[in-house]
Amino acid sequence: MFESDARGALIAPRLTAWRQARTDAGVKDRPATHDLREIFNAILYVDRTGIAWRYLPHDLPLWQTVYWYFAAWTSDNVFADLNHDLVGLARAKPAGTRTRPRA
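== Transposase ==
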């Protein structure tokens, strides 16, 4: 259900950059106590299962925390940026490949 380490490595830089940008902008948030990847996994869990935020399993962060990050990331276009990054990676051609097939 949760993201693999390889997928997490693709997502982590964007989430870390978001947190750093908020710090640099002087946004006064509480000190970070949760791993951003754990928050992201909880959001994926809600999306994939269709449960209400309040019914997140207890081994994930509190639903209020997860929802706060979801709202902040939505407001700051983090999901759109992640989508753009991942689509770009998926469309990238491996080195040494031709753009036109040989006849």
